[in-house]
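Module 6 notes. Inverse folding takes a fixed backbone as the condition and produces residue identities as the prediction. Think of it as a translation problem where the source language is geometry and the target language is the twenty amino acids. Below is one complete input and output pair. Work through it position by position during the lab.
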């Protein structure tokens, strides 16, 4: 019996197998972006032995909202309070382009003719002024269905305090529609625009995620798989029912799994401040982990524009849900290198992805990529995936030659990508009041260990860790994650009582709970936005105030002598799972290079090439050197030293 973790990326779909003895193994298959379930099921069929569980991280939610071919969003209807029909179109006065008088706002996910104003009203204190009339809901439901709506979002004013009108509406709508999202279930928080936007996004994703999970579930049933869990954006595993009911929490599923892996492995090796750096085939992601817990935020904007890793407010659709705090840039192994009209070299944002992929893969790619650049410089060898994929270096050289001297183009492209990825790291450190020089950089993803030393030099970081299975570390993070189920409430009259009520609700619907995590969104009275802080037990207003003041000072450099306001409290019910056991490397003695290869650093050098599994614990390798393994390649530049740790991790230091 084995447990299999599957992470679908833009280029590869990664599989990590947890065996009965706690050991792990991994492999990759090329992703099938238009039908991601095809790659998942084909990979699972390759596994010998019975699969007891499948844990899955998916990007299907993000891809659908970004308009990926083959993932067409369904028609969504919105039922809202009379007078608030246009709230999702008016939004906030966040201008993505401050001085552009002709910018286009994001297209509303619900056209105006499918927005229905319901004659109902609840006061801010929860008092019902006007109850819902079921006949009115039935009339609107018939009209919505006649216009082709497949899913319905319901977002009434102040439903986060009293959801009764939404619940009555939902009961009526179930006679007409299969997919219904109530804001009081999806995002019971104040701010009608953000709550309505979150509910609409959830409604739009429900049919797509439901169909995807249904395909996988049927395929898993044929394979005899017992259980199926999916990673949420908050870093936990949820069951398929929760995923279908609230698919909005799957938007950053894959990157969150990588941050969980960083947190859990940092606990194992006892490193308290870690920057997670995940560079795959399409994007690079950065996260900050302090005391073995990734930073969490409660707001996100999906489907919008990103500028150097920073989400541009007003360019996408706001979502109010717990997310691991990540910064993402369009720099991956498949990111395309090109020249603009002025002749300047550019990197990204377009990617060659899995189809056709980099030129060197020999699958029809015609645009040079960062992977081709590393091949030209000798940092990637003749084979990938343990010999399964042959690399065509001559084709990569020819492709880069279209842009100039191939070596110079490769070096410049890598320098530009390094600067871009360092910006992403600064977003989750410097802009959060953290000094990256006090952190260790944990680099993973297929391309991460090739770029890590250069990013570390850009940031002033002196220590790098390359964990086991770096090429599939996000998938490995699924095996290291626990089950997490979230509940929240707004404006509690008593904080401790509010937390206990939420914990009781979660306990009643789950088979078991091992422990609870508590968070609160807090602000100074009169402020417009909140900070999310962890809350101890028992919860007290004074303790929350002290924690908030500390976080406010760390984030903004000051704190105010003003009372605080607890806007929303949230609880995660955590169910512990069996984790993989990392063992010391089996290799004995001293590893010898498998060979030497010409690699360009400051000049061409004959660098030794080692196979990672042959390097024993404690061995020190001086750069320049290259360490190869199945899913990745680690580059050790001159001036860097590599040491193998007790759990098989590679530690690079200057």
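Target side of the pair, the amino acids:
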């Amino acid at each position: 019996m084995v447990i299999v973790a599957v992470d679908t990326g833009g280029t590869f779909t990664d599989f990590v197998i947890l065996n009965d003895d706690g050991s792990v193994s991994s492999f990759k298959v090329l992703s099938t972006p238009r039908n991601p379930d095809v790659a998942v099921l084909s990979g699972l069929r390759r596994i010998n032995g019975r699969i007891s569980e499948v844990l899955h991280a998916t990007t299907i939610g993000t891809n659908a909202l970004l308009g990926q071919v083959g993932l067409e969003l369904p028609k969504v209807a919105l039922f809202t309070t009379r007078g608030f029909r246009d709230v999702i179109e008016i939004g906030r006065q966040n201008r993505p382009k401050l001085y552009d008088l002709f910018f286009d706002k994001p297209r509303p996910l619900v056209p105006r003719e499918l927005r229905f104003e319901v004659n109902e009203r609840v006061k801010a204190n929860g008092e019902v002024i006007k109850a819902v009339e079921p006949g009115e809901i039935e009339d609107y439901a018939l009209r919505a269905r006649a216009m082709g709506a497949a899913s319905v979002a319901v977002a009434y004013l102040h439903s986060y305090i009293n959801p009764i009108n939404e619940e009555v509406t939902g009961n009526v709508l179930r006679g007409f529609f299969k997919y219904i999202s109530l804001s009081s279930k999806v995002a019971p928080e104040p701010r009608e625009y953000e709550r309505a936007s979150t509910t609409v996004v959830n409604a739009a994703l429900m049919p797509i995620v439901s169909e995807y999970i249904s395909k996988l579930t049927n395929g898993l049933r044929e394979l005899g798989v017992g259980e199926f869990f999916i990673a949420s954006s908050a870093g936990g595993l949820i069951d398929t029912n929760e995923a279908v009911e609230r698919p909005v929490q799957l938007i950053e599923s894959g990157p969150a799994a990588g941050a969980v892996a960083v947190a859990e492995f940092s606990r194992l090796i006892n490193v308290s401040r870690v920057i997670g750096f995940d560079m795959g085939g399409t994007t690079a992601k950065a996260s900050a982990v302090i005391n073995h817990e990734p930073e969490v935020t409660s707001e996100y904007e999906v489907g919008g524009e990103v500028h150097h890793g920073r989400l541009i407010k007003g360019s996408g659709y706001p979502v109010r849900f717990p997310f691991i705090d990540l910064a993402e840039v369009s720099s991956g192994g498949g990111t395309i290198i090109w020249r603009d009209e002025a002749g300047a070299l550019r990197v990204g944002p377009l990617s060659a992805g899995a189809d056709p992929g980099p030129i060197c893969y020999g699958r029809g790619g015609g645009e040079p990529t960062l992977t081709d650049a590393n091949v030209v410089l000798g940092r990637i060898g003749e084979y990938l995936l343990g010999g399964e994929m042959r690399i065509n270096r001559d084709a990569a050289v020819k492709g880069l030659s279209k842009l100039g001297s191939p070596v110079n183009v490769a070096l410049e492209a890598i320098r530009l990508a390094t600067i871009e990825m360092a910006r992403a790291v600064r977003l989750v450190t410097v802009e959060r009041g953290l000094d990256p020089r006090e952190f260790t950089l944990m680099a993973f993803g297929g391309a991460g260990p090739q770029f890590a030393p250069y990013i570390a030099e850009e940031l002033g970081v002196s220590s790098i860790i390359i964990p086991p299975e770096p090429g599939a570390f996000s998938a490995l993070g699924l095996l290291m994650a626990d089950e997490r189920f979230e509940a929240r409430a707004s404006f509690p009259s008593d904080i401790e009582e509010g937390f206990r009520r939420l914990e009781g609700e979660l306990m009643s619907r789950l088979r078991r709970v091992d422990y609870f995590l508590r968070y609160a969104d807090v602000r100074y009275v009169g402020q417009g936005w909140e900070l999310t802080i962890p809350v101890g037990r028992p919860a007290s207003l004074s303790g929350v105030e002290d924690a908030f003041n500390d976080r406010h000072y760390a984030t903004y450099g000051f704190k105010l002598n003003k009372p605080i306001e607890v806007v929303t409290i949230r609880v995660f019910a955590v169910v512990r799972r069996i984790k993989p056991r990392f063992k010391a490397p089996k290799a004995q003695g001293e590893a010898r290079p498998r060979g030497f290869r010409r690699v360009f650093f400051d000049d061409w050098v004959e660098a030794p090439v080692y196979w990672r599994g042959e390097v024993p614990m404690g061995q020190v390798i001086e750069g320049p050197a290259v360490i190869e393994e199945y899913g990745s390649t680690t580059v050790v530049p001159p001036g860097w030293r590599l040491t193998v740790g007790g759990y098989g991790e590679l530690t690079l230091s200057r």
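Reference fact for the lab report: DSSP finds 16 helices and 37 strands in the chain.
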